[in-house]
Amino acid sequence: MLGTAHPVQAEGAQPSTILPGAVSMHMGFGDGYKRATLSWESTPLWSYQFSGRGGRLDLTGELGVSYWWANKDRNPRNAWQLSAIPMLRYWATEKFYLEAGIGATVFSGSGFAGKNISTAYQFGDHVGAGYQITPSDRIGVRYSHFSNAGIKRPNPGLDIIQVTYTRKF
User: Fold this and answer.
1) pTM for this structure?
2) What is the pLDDT along the chain (169 residues), one digit of tens a residue?
3) Which residues of 49-76 are buried (b: 16+ CB within 10 A; e: fewer)?
């Protein structure tokens, strides 16, 4: 299956001469904190079209920068984060998708919102769903969990639910 897959371009999409892909904005809410993210998403690096009405599976790369801020007296009150996430996106129809990804992230410190997350390096686990509004615009919802996978204790993790908007160019 993987050996027969090849990159595909959505029907009617125009290739970009600058930097193909998409830009997405995410706004998330967690337990006493918020997160705003700006990401660049690659065009599909790999794609597999299932036979019949089985849908399509795409693999894309997602590079992002996020700003986190905590409510009231939780210290440290803010943090920056860089992320690199390979995302698998299953298109059940031409409009509806499910997505999942696991990747590396780096925080600006090892503490945030009253939590000692022990390491600046964290793994990000993501699951979501969305809808293609137009050939260039997509909206979705995503749940993300960040933790150091037990590399060092304590490892409380950070959880966030996000609303996403993506614009292809």
Assistant:
1) 0.86
2) 444 444 444 444 444 445 689 999 999 999 999 999 999 999 999 999 999 889 999 999 999 999 999 988 888 899 999 999 999 999 999 999 999 999 999 999 999 998 999 999 999 999 999 999 999 999 999 999 999 999 999 999 999 999 999 999 8
3) eeeeeebbbbbbbbebebebebeeeeeb
159 is catalytic: yes
CATH number, span 22-168? 2.40.160.20
24 as an active site residue: the answer is no
Q: Which of 42, 108, 136, 145 is catalytic?
A: 145
Q: Any catalytic annotation for residue 145?
A: yes
In contact, 83 and 103? CB cutoff 8 Å: yes
